[in-house]
Write a structure and sequence with these properties.
- The protein is an alpha+beta fold and 101 residues long.
- It has a domain of 70 residues: Ribosomal protein L7/L12, C-terminal domain/Adaptor protein ClpS (Ribosomal Protein L30, Chain: A, 2-Layer Sandwich), CATH 3.30.1390.10.
- It contains four helices and three strands; from the N terminus they run αβααβαβ.
- α2 packs across α3 and α2 runs antiparallel to α4.
């Protein structure tokens, strides 16, 4: 028998961390129509009418509102898509991202 036959075998499991999540934030402005914001929230973030209205009105009243939480890449992609949709329509609609605490 060799040394490798008598030693106990242990499995090495690498520790994997969950990816850090990022919030997509809607920033209020005084120019983008509410209906347009609701349409963007429904189209890009898959919200229903009530959810999108609540997010929009929260941003309107408080200045910002958390839209959703995703992994970093998805959050940045969705924020860019939504902001670009506003720009194409001629509005200063702005979505940002930040790490979740």
């Amino acid at each position: 028998m060799s040394d490798t036959d008598t030693k106990p075998r242990t499995k090495v499991r690498p520790k994997t961390e969950r990816p850090r999540l990022h919030k997509v934030i809607l920033v209020n402005d005084d120019y983008t129509p509410r209906e347009f914001v609701v349409t963007v929230l429904k189209g890009i973030f898959g919200m229903n009418e009530d959810q999108s209205y609540r997010v929009m009105i929260t941003a309107h009243r408080r200045g910002t509102s958390v839209v959703a939480v995703y992994t970093k890449d998805i959050a940045e992609t969705k924020a860019t898509e939504a902001t670009d949709e506003g720009r194409r329509a001629g509005f200063p609609l702005l979505f940002t991202t930040e790490p979740e605490e």
